[in-house]
């Protein structure tokens, strides 16, 4: 984990010409480096640089720093194994068979994306955001950071600082866990604030279904519970494309697939 944070720091400090060329329009390119979230669509940028790399089912990696490839390969495998264990427990907690979620959402070809975030010191932090409030699209995001705080999560309408323990992995629930569980698990609303002293680096590993899976609330769950599905089915790829193509805005993408009861 420490080596991943160090190598990410090295990446962001490379001369610009050694970083991958970035087209803000291609939101599903396997290797992307840029500023803010979607600078092609935003009027105001976030105080953040990012590197996004699709690492599963196909492994991609920038060429530099050279140490990145081996580390990333190991890190993505280990975090995928951890997610597998979490997902089996979650499946059982919903009263489903242990491998139900793995099978239904085709996790053998799950989409896993490395997101390295770099938040430099900001001279007027109260006027800026590292990342605006949003929820992550996948099932689980595993987040690690250097010892500079900045992540906040919303609970019962209030924002709380996440004071992550050293060497810990923070597990955030994502939109597709909310959809699959028919709202029994909620995706967590979170944001990153910035400070005027230290550079913050975080590494988020998003773990989703396979890109071509059409996700809906688990039919077995809905049947067992005798309830109605609360979300419309949507292909993960379409969901991702739509979310990434718009400025980040709370849970607005999830609300578009939510069936409103009136
Ligand atoms: C993200 C994210 C928060 C952070 O990359 O999706 O929410 O603490 N990052 O950097
Ligand atoms: Ni996030």
Structure summarized in a few sentences:
With 262 residues, this protein is α+β, with helices and mostly antiparallel strands. Helix content is 27%, strand content 23%.
Major sheet strand order: 1-2-3-10-5-8
Given helix and strand content, the structural type is alpha+beta
In CATH, the topology is named Jelly Rolls
Q: Point out poorly predicted stretches.
A: none
CATH architecture: Sandwich
Give the CATH H-level superfamily: B-lactam Antibiotic, Isopenicillin N Synthase, Chain
Indicate how many domains the architecture comprises: 1
* Average pLDDT, all residues: 94
Ligands and ions found? N-oxalylglycine, nickel (II) ion
Pfam families: 2OG-FeII_Oxy, DIOX_N
GO molecular function: 2-oxoglutarate-dependent dioxygenase activity; metal ion binding
Protein name: DMR6-LIKE OXYGENASE 2-like
Domain Fe2OG dioxygenase: 109-209
Describe the structure in your own words.
By secondary structure, the protein is α+β, with helices and mostly antiparallel strands. The protein has a single domain (2-249), classed as Jelly Rolls (Sandwich), CATH 2.60.120.330. The protein has helices at 2-12, 68-93, 100-104, 175-180, 219-225, 236-244, 252-257, and strands spanning 31-35, 49-56, 112-119, 131-134, 140-145, 151-155, 158-161, 170-173, 190-192, 200-207, 214-215, 234-235. A 6-stranded antiparallel sheet has the order 1-2-3-10-5-8. A hairpin with a 2-residue loop joins β6 and β7 (158-161). α1 (2-12) packs across α2. The protein is globular and about 55 Å long. The model has no long low-confidence stretch (mean pLDDT 94).
């Amino acid at each position: 984990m420490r080596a991943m944070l160090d190598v990410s720091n090295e990446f962001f400090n490379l001369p610009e010409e050694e970083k991958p060329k970035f087209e803000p329009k291609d939101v599903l390119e396997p290797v992307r480096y840029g500023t803010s979230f979607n600078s092609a669509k935003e009027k105001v940028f976030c105080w953040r640089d990012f590197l996004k790399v699709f690492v599963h089912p196909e492994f991609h990696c920038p060429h530099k720093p050279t140490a990145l490839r081996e580390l990333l390969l190991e890190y993505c495998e280990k975090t995928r194994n951890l997610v597998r264990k979490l997902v089996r427990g979650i499946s059982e907690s919903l009263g489903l068979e242990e491998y139900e979620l793995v099978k239904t959402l085709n996790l053998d070809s799950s989409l896993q994306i490395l997101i390295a975030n770099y938040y430099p010191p900001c001279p007027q932090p109260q006027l800026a955001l590292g990342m605006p409030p949003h929820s992550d699209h996948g099932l689980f995001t595993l987040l690690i950071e250097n010892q500079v705080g900045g992540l906040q999560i919303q609970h019962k309408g209030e924002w709380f600082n996440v004071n992550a323990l050293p060497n810990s992995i923070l597990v955030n629930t994502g939109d597709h866990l909310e959809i699959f569980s028919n709202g029994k698990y909620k995706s967590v609303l979170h944001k990153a604030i910035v400070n005027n002293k230290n550079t913050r680096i975080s590494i988020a590993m998003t773990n989703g279904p396979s890109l071509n899976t059409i996700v809906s609330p688990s039919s077995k769950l809905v049947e067992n519970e005798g309830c109605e599905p609360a979300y419309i089915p949507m292909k993960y790829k379409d969901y991702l494309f739509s979310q990434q193509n718009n400025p980040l805005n709370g849970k607005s993408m999830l609300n578009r697939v939510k069936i409103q009861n009136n």
